[in-house]
Amino acid sequence: MPPILAFAVIALFTNRYRQTSSTIAVFAMIASLVMSFIVFFNVWQMKDLGKKPIGGQIGWLPTGETVLNIGVAVDPLGATFLFMVPVACTLIFIYSIGYMSADPRYTRFFAYLSLFAGSMMGLVVSDNLLTLFIFWELMGFCSYSLIGFFYQKPSAYKAAVKAFMTTRVGDMLLLLGMVYLYAQTGTLNFHAILHNEEVLKELAATPAVLGLGISAAGLIAILIFGGTVGKSAQWPLHVWLPDAMEGPTPVSAMIHAATMVSAGIFMLLRFFPLLVASGEHGTAFTIVGLIGAFTAFLGATIAVAQYDIKRVLAFSTISQLGFMVAAVGIGAYVAAAFHLLTHAFFKALLFLASGSVIHGVEHGHHHVSHAGHGGHSGHSGHESHSSHGEHGHDAHDSHGGHDDHGEHDAHAFDPQDMRNMGGLRTRMPITFATFLIGGLALAGFPFITAGFWSKDEIFADAYYHGLVKGDSLATLVFLVLVVSALMTAFYTMRQIAMTFLGQPRTEAAAHATESVPSMTFPLIVLAVFALFIGFINIPKDFPVFGALMGDGAFWLKNFIASMLLEKPEPLTFNIVPVLFSIGVALGGLALGWLVYARNPLQAGQTDPVEKLPVFNFLYNRWYWDELYRKIFITPLQVIADNYARVVDKGVIDRILEGGYAFGARVTKGFAEFDRVVITGFSDAVGRFFRSLGDWGRELQTGQVQNYLLSGLIMVIAILVFFLFLFQ
Amino acid sequence: MQNLLNGIPLWWYLVVSAALFCIGLYGALARKNAIALLMGVELMLNAANINLLAFWRYLAPASSGGLAFAAFVLVIAAAEAAVGLALIISVYRVTRSIDPEKLDQMKL
Lengths: 727, 108
What we know:
The complex is a heterodimer. Chain A is an all-alpha fold. Helix content of chain A is 69%, strand content 3%. The longest helix of chain A is centred in the C-terminal third of the chain and has 76 residues, at 624-699. The relative contact order of chain A is 0.08. By secondary structure, chain B is mainly α. In chain B, α2 packs antiparallel against α3 (34-59) and α3 runs antiparallel to α4 (65-95). The model of chain B has no long low-confidence stretch (mean pLDDT 84). Chain A binds chain B through residues 697, 700-705, 708-709, 712, and chain B through 25, 28-30, 37, 100-101, 103-108.
């Protein structure tokens, strides 16, 4: 785990040396990238890896008779992530060098980032739920520290606390599930539970505690899914993710792509066999499917009405994670994993590109405000003033930023607000090109983007299970996802148009500059992935493309499906979901084009979305936060206040006061004892030695002959003593 | 000479040595002159030397340990006398006296 070592080294030793620290972090990341690749390319064509994962384990916690083993294991699912996570993380690290270069707490940032990446890698290779949970919580800590990285800003630390508390609700459920699972099976090893038909059968046969009418397998699956809901920001615990963008942009990219939210889906995928065991149309599947579909819809609707460039992406992530969860809910295991994989690349790309945009607009803004003050001229003084809108404004004498710190600016300038952008196409060509690729991948632009293939896969599964086989849940999921995908394409186009097309709407946007190479390089690499990673799982019988891939077709499916006990039944190619998929992608993009790109917004013009009757509802995110404030936070505060007043003041303080009085009496007794016995005794000892000393002092006359005499007396005394002793 | 030596028993030597030691001890303890005190110490050392030699000659004539010890003692006595005399001269320069009873600077 080089990144974790890097965290330790940076935190303990090199935290004063900026350059050294980031170099260590990046090289540690590259080292683990290389190691992961070695593992990945060793296993990627093994047929039976799912049945016999490679790895090792050691006994760790003795629990009575048995020993709880922990260890690492690489199975197909883990190997796939072992490919994706380090690639994304390495690029994000490289990007951070440029992005964070002006930050005073640069080394700390890299330390946390390393721990974050290391935890995710650890989570991926864990072979049991306990170590997975440990890394899971480590990531919770890292996200807390990183979201609240600019802790001078109230919004940042509030977001950190919110993220921490919200995911904690899910973690609690996960922990319950974990305990229950251990109580039932006596092991937490994935392979021993999830690849063991007997265990699964037994879990399925045992009715759950509390008489809920479902099997133990179902209840455990639901509890563990609770962890996913928290970590992967599914409704109803989705509220933390949009606020999580308060952290630096590379952190947003980490959270949204490679680490936090992926971990949730990853674990859900891990426990897929348990879901299967709980029944094909069981409660667990239904819950997962409904929550996923609802979240996909919720996120997509909210994203349509946001102005903050990162907030759009955050809700988009929520929505896309909903796609994955919904896919799991209808049994489309491979499709969910596939979408998670492609999404990680293009969402990391989008976040980093948006960071680059923010960076550029910030520069433009500084340029403008300095020119306006007449102090500086030209680009020469530019670099030294680079601070991002989200950065610690206290460190610089801030110009704007979106938390209204810039008092001497006439208006607070928000470099993240898309209304302040426009026309960046020509100012930031690389960012534009990569953002466009990421956006098209997100929208599912047909054939040439990764997002299309993975989304298509989900559609195909949902269509097959729903409209062909008649599963009502899958039908519902299919319809909801189609609508969500339409909106996805629409808001993506809106975002691209508002940011990059038309004329600059502010001076800042007009003076934006392209970012440094350390930031654009990762964008380009990620863009390549966003385009081509989809080809690892093209259906064999897909027209043209399936034939082109030859044996490579369905590689991911064949690889990952070996995780499952039963092979998923092969889907026959069906043109309908593909047409739907192409239709919604192009339709949404076209709609966005008509509304935003044909006549780009002018400065001061209102956004057409605001004319929608539901705009306020969407803009305020369905009022979920307000609702939670009303039903959870405020009552809790009232309870806490009352508790403080009644229990704390009334009961505990009373007890404490009583205890104090009692204590005082006891103390007085002790004092008496102390005075008479202890002090008396020690004084006596003191006096004795003092008198002894006085006597000894008199012996010391300083006269040699006296000393000689005393020596003589002593010798005689010793002689006499020995004579009597040995006679 | 040889006969005479052979005729003297060991305890004669020890008596002489003890007497010498006592004289030396008395001198070291009672003399008002620091040089005499030093001489007393020398006497005691020589008493020890007599003991060493007598024991060597009578009990272990084959080994040379007794001789070696006596030689050591002589060397140490010479060194001690040199240092002692130097000290006494130095003390005299400061206090104009070599009466050991008046030298109580070692007192705490």
